[in-house]
Design goal:
elongated, alpha+beta, 3-stranded antiparallel β-sheet, 5-stranded mixed β-sheet, 10 strands, single chain, 7 helices, about 25% strand, PvuII Endonuclease, Chain A
Amino acid sequence: MAIKLTKEILCKEAKIFVDRESKHYEPSIYGITDGKAVGTYFEHKFQRHLHQQYDYVEGSSAKGIDFPELGVDIKTTSIRQPQSSCPYKSARQKLFGLGYSLLVFVYEKNDDRQKRAGRLNILHTVFIEKEKTADYQMTKQINAILKNQGNVDDLMALMMDKNLPVDEIEAKKIAEDVIANPPEIGYLTISNALQWRLQYSRIIEQAGKVDGLIKLI
């Protein structure tokens, strides 16, 4: 009988899988430089690994996050430019977090000409609790404003200065919510776009040093 997947098991299995995968040479990714294709290969293989033992609902990019029951999404990215995109739902995500946790794999890809196969050396694996998935600079500045007795106008001015994709009415609502419920400091860098662009350099640096940034590898 399959075991029910939990966040703790997911993190444990990620470590096991990464250790094995970092030694594996894969012909299908030889010469591939498209990060999306590499990430798809890695994530599908990880899902197959999990399905051998565990019972869970698998999500998809079309349906939403990878582990909807756990509230976790996988991100796989190259160390050369550790970033990825994610669906834009609301400007509030930049201040209050994405609304789900992230399991981030950061790889260095090496191709072996003799074997005609590629290998993904996983350099970092980090689990980011959803409470830490907001934008670092935005949440730092918000907390500084609140510490200095800032008000709704000050917060609205910050949002306008940072080009947060909101109109004045929504900015006022967000500012009032921020005062009522100050956000935690996030550790992502989130760039405005039709899709959010998430950058992970700070996550890599701070993993294991900050609560909610769990360094697995």
